[in-house]
Specification:
Layout lengths: L30 H26 L5 E11 L2 E6 L2 E7 L2 E2 L16 H12 L3 E11 L5 E6 L8 H7 L1 H7 L4 E2 L9 H13 L23 E4 L4 E4 L13 E4 L2 H6 L3 E2 L6
Parallel strand pairs: 3-6, 9-11
Antiparallel strand pairs: 1-2, 1-5, 2-3, 4-7, 5-6, 8-9, 8-10
Helix pairs in contact: 3-4, 4-5
Bound molecules: zinc ion.
Length: 268
């Protein structure tokens, strides 16, 4: 396990020792010896006051970093506090580019997403925001990537300045919600819906679902190749599956035999 990065820059370190307290009795202590200690305590109280005020205002802490390398559409390397860190964008998933060594095949629009992220982020200064879980099982940081620090954390600012949102709005990524990191999940679903309805990016590579309840195919059941979950074709989640990940099944048995689990919402 790598260290949590917030612990590295604790702005309010507690004094490790109290050199003014002597073992040989308080009566020998003189007031002037206490003055620096009192000043230090006063400063600590002020600092902690500031910290709790900014938390109360609901302002998440952002860490500045520089993007040094782009792995694919949703993964980059950054320089953060003098260290190289791999960062996976939280709540979104771009189509894969090919990784022959990992047995991963290229997905439609994977290359475009990677090229777009390179164009937008490489060598750029960014601000990272973390959700509840800071790292994934591969030790990558999980972050919301801000192109500019937002003045307020409103939908308008998120649309304009957060790169995770930009990927969704332009159809370079789909929503991938992984609890407990769900801070912006509802907004992300909304952004994805907008991109899908406009046929943007990956949503334009195959026939787009237009009428609610009437999927593009005739199949009764629809699965997601990535999550291995299958749905009734009129389930709202079935419509969130990108063309690249969409699998159609004629029957429930067919889906189960292919190793898919039933959706807990539409209970196919
Ligand atoms: Zn479903």
């Amino acid at each position: 396990m790598r260290p949590l990065i917030f612990s590295a820059g604790n702005p309010c370190p507690a004094p490790k020792t109290f050199p003014y307290l002597r073992k040989d009795g308080a009566s020998r202590l003189r007031l002037k010896n206490f003055i620096p200690l009192l000043l230090a305590l006063f400063a600590l109280i002020l600092l902690s006051g500031c910290a709790s005020r900014s938390e109360a205002a609901g302002k998440p802490k952002l860490l500045q970093a520089v993007v040094t390398q782009v792995s694919d559409g949703d993964t980059v390397h950054v320089r953060l506090n003098g260290r190289d860190e791999k960062v996976r964008f939280t709540g979104v998933n771009c189509p894969e580019i090919s990784h022959p060594s990992l047995g991963i095949r290229e997905q439609p629009y994977g290359k475009q997403a990677a090229t777009y992220t390179k164009k937008r982020l490489l060598k750029r200064k960014v601000w990272l925001e973390f959700d509840v879980g800071q790292r994934d099982k591969y030790s990558r940081l999980l972050a919301y990537v801000w192109l500019n620090p937002p003045a307020v954390f409103t939908e308008k600012e998120i649309r304009a300045k957060m790169y995770n949102a930009e990927l969704l709005l332009n159809g370079y990524a789909q929503v991938m919600t992984a609890p407990p990191n769900v801070k912006y999940a509802d907004l992300f679903v909304k952004f994805q819906r907008e991109a899908r309805e406009k046929g943007k990016g990956l949503w334009g590579v195959a026939p787009v679902v237009t009428k609610p309840g009437k999927p593009a195919g005739k199949a009764a059941y629809v699965g997601n190749r990535r999550s291995k979950v299958f749905h009734r074709s009129d389930c709202k989640w079935a419509k969130e599956i990108s063309p690249a990940n969409r699998m159609e099944f004629g029957s429930r048995e067919e889906a189960v035999k292919a190793g898919y689990r039933p959706c807990r919402v539409c209970r196919p």
